[in-house]
């Protein structure tokens, strides 16, 4: 090293080694600077529908409650909410992506504050066609879908009979019970009627 230094004045003996060290340092820096791949944070969302059963009369307004709760995410504004109904005809979608999708229908819409977890459904001027089980479904940012247990809605028909509004099933039950009572009364009174008739015949004969 001393000889090379004397033959080539101004030459830095450590330049070659220093350059190698700088390249190694750069390589190390490049490796550690790579971005880390982060997996999406998992959600733990609870969808609660209350009550399990709901009744209403024709023409009334019904509120089907649905509340969301996520301890990790107090703000829920980025969630997509869907409501659908199941009945004998199958499944009917009522609301998707927080918006009513029924054509020419302004009776059904979502109420409440989504950021506070209130995604309840309102149905105005209900009719017997609104019978069914209603489900609240939420799609999370990670694609996971969470659905409530459902609320069974039953609408009582307004018959206007003596000012009493009852469902068809209730009216049929009352009529059947009345007929059954009359039949029992006839069976019980028949022996007594026979005795009375015999007594009347005897008295008339005397």
TrEMBL record:
<dbReference type="InterPro" id="IPR007110">
    <property type="entry name" value="Ig-like_dom"/>
</dbReference>
<keyword id="KW-1015">Disulfide bond</keyword>
<keyword id="KW-1133">Transmembrane helix</keyword>
<dbReference type="GO" id="GO:0005886">
    <property type="term" value="C:plasma membrane"/>
</dbReference>
<dbReference type="InterPro" id="IPR036179">
    <property type="entry name" value="Ig-like_dom_sf"/>
</dbReference>
<dbReference type="InterPro" id="IPR013783">
    <property type="entry name" value="Ig-like_fold"/>
</dbReference>
<keyword id="KW-0325">Glycoprotein</keyword>
<protein>
    <submittedName>
        <fullName>HAVR2 protein</fullName>
    </submittedName>
</protein>
<feature type="domain" description="Ig-like">
    <location>
        <begin position="40"/>
        <end position="147"/>
    </location>
</feature>
<keyword id="KW-0472">Membrane</keyword>
<dbReference type="InterPro" id="IPR003599">
    <property type="entry name" value="Ig_sub"/>
</dbReference>
<keyword id="KW-0812">Transmembrane</keyword>
<dbReference type="Pfam" id="PF07686">
    <property type="entry name" value="V-set"/>
</dbReference>
<keyword id="KW-0732">Signal</keyword>
<feature type="transmembrane region" description="Helical">
    <location>
        <begin position="168"/>
        <end position="190"/>
    </location>
</feature>
<dbReference type="InterPro" id="IPR000920">
    <property type="entry name" value="Myelin_P0-rel"/>
</dbReference>
<dbReference type="InterPro" id="IPR013106">
    <property type="entry name" value="Ig_V-set"/>
</dbReference>
<keyword id="KW-0393">Immunoglobulin domain</keyword>
């Amino acid at each position: 090293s001393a000889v090379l230094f004397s033959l080539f004045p101004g030459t830095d003996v450590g330049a070659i080694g220093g350059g190698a060290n700088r390249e190694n340092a750069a390589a190390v820096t490049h490796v550690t600077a790579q971005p880390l791949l982060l997996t999406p944070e998992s959600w733990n969302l609870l969808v609660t529908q209350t009550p399990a059963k709901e009744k209403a009369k024709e023409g009334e307004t019904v509120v089907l409650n649905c509340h969301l709760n996520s301890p990790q995410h107090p703000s829920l504004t980025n969630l997509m909410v869907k409501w659908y109904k199941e009945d004998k005809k199958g499944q009917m979608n009522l609301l998707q992506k927080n918006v009513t999708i029924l054509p020419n229908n302004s009776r059904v819409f979502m109420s409440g504050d989504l950021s506070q977890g209130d995604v309840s459904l309102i149905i105005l001027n209900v009719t017997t066609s609104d019978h069914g089980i209603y489900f609240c479904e939420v799609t999370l940012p990670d694609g996971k879908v969470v659905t409530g247990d459902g609320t069974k809605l039953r609408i009582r028909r307004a018959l206007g009979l003596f000012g009493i509004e009852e469902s068809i099933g209730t009216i049929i039950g009352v009529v059947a019970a009345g007929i059954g009572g009359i039949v029992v009364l006839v069976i019980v009174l028949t022996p007594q009627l026979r005795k009375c008739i015999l007594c009347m015949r005897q008295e008339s004969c005397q």
